[in-house]
Structure formats: structure tokens, C-alpha cells
């Protein structure tokens, strides 16, 4: 499954979704968000999938919601909810309902929708940059913002995070 904004690739038991518009800051419009949520649901529902990893190409993970040229801002709250917010809330629902953990590999900036998406995932993880190459991997027993599902499934495992 592919889109003009993201690609889906299988690596054994891991499904990798990559936001592929780094030149545009990996921004997503509401239809792209709906497609991303559907891709996460489909990947997590596959019998042989054990983990979904979402990452972005380019310097930044996701700089938020893409404003489409020529589309006016909704004048009423109900119109905003139907045209914009429902797509965002739908992605959050797809993340919560995914039967396998969703890891968000964040590199660079994550603003707006990108930041909220990373926070809603089971385990956001920073990607090391060349500026932090002198740092070392440090073992810890939890990651920032892990969901209850990650604690239940990985309680006995040791995680490593970049410090």
C-alpha cells in the first residue's frame, strides 16, 4: 500500500510506514491523515505483524497539518470538526485500536499534528543525529509516554534510549 505522502513496507514481522514528502516537511492534509490511519489499522491487523514503525524522510518527522491552497478556513465550528478535526481524531482512534504496538521514530522537528501523533503512539523514540554522535546508548526500563499496552507487553524487557 502506498500513497503520495507515505509508503508502507514489510520487513518480516515489522511494518514500516514512512512519511515520504521530506521536501514539504512531511505535512499531511486531512485525506492523507485518514489514509495513514487506515494503513496503520491494516498493518496492525495483519496476522504476522508484531510492530508498526512510523518514520519520516528528510530533516523533520512531521511539521503538522498541510494547508491546501485554495481551501478556505471553515467559518463554523461544526464545519471545522467535519473537515479537519475528524480526520485527526480518527488517526488517534486508529492508533489506540491497533492490536500491535506502534513505534514512532522521530527525527528533527515534530510540530502540530506530528507532535500529537508521536505522543499518541505507543512509544515515541528519538533518532540520533550527527550532532549527538558522542552520546552513548543508555539502558532504561521505560520510554517517555508509553501506553499501558506497551507496559503490559514489554514489562520484562529492557529498552535502550539515546542519552
How would you sum up this structure, described in words?
This protein has 163 residues and is of the alpha/beta class. 32% of the residues lie in helices and 21% in strands. It contains four helices and seven strands, in the order ββαβαβαββαβ. The protein has helices at 30-45, 77-97, 113-120, 148-154, and strands at residues 6-11, 14-19, 51-56, 102-106, 123-126, 137-140, 159-162. A five-stranded mixed beta sheet has the order 1-2-3-4-5, covered by helices on one side. Strand 2, helix 1 and strand 3 (51-56) form a beta-alpha-beta unit. It is globular, with a radius of gyration of 16 Å.
Descriptive terms for the model:
32% helix; 5-stranded mixed β-sheet; alpha/beta; disordered C terminus; 163 residues; two-stranded antiparallel ribbon; 4 helices
Amino acid at each position: 500500500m502506498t500513497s503520495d505522502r507515505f509508503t508502507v513496507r514489510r520487513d518480516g514481522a515489522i511494518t514500516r510506514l514512512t512519511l515520504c514528502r521530506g521536501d514539504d516537511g512531511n505535512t499531511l492534509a486531512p485525506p492523507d491523515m485518514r489514509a495513514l490511519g487506515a494503513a496503520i489499522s491494516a498493518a496492525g491487523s495483519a496476522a504476522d505483524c508484531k510492530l508498526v514503525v512510523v518514520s519520516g524522510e528528510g530533516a523533520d518527522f512531521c511539521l503538522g497539518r498541510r494547508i491546501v491552497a485554495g481551501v478556505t478556513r471553515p467559518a463554523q465550528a461544526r464545519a471545522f470538526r467535519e473537515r479537519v478535526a475528524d480526520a485527526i481524531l480518527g488517526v488517534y482512534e486508529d492508533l489506540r485500536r491497533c492490536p500491535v504496538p506502534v513505534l514512532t521514530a522521530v527525527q528533527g522537528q515534530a510540530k502540530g499534528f506530528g507532535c500529537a501523533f508521536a505522543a499518541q503512539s505507543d512509544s515515541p523514540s528519538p533518532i540520533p543525529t550527527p550532532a549527538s554522535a558522542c552520546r552513548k546508548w543508555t539502558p532504561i526500563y521505560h520510554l517517555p509516554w508509553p501506553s499501558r499496552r506497551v507496559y503490559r507487553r514489554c514489562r520484562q524487557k529492557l529498552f535502550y534510549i539515546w542519552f
